[in-house]
Structure prediction request, 155 residues.
Amino acid sequence: MDMDRDLTIQQVAELTGLSAHTLRYYERAGLLDPVGRAESGHRRYAATDLAWLDFLTRLRATGMPIRQMQEFAALRRRGPATARKRRLLLEAHQHAVRDHIRALTQNLARIDDKIDYYTTLEAEYDSSSGQDDADDTPTGARAGAGADAVRAGSH
Prediction:
């Protein structure tokens, strides 16, 4: 198989995890340069297409809107003269991703706190009531849990 331009849409879909529908959409939307065709008219992707698709997938996975991806792809097609604009676009996206990661980290810390709280509450309840793990009733569903919830505040 000539890796320069010999991958079918099914092969690229398998390699990238993108569906054939998404690959066609990326081409129609201008995210992907027009893909070469075999004599039969079937798409044939090159190794450079795979590298670009990998980058597009990472942009999408980090929340870049399609419109910004299109802008980036259009700038890329215009060549090195657009390097500054592309860098600025990526830096803005990088900032947004870092903000999102900070927010996720804060949210995860709060979830960790809740898990710690419930682990302690469960251990205290089990030790005072003689309960063991055989009782799989959620703590909040047990009789009297409402009073615990009121005393515990937002827990």
User: Anything to note?
Assistant: The first helix runs from residue 9 to 16. The two ends are 59 Å apart (CA to CA). The chain has two domains: 1-65, 78-136. The CA atoms of residues 56 and 94 lie 14 Å apart.
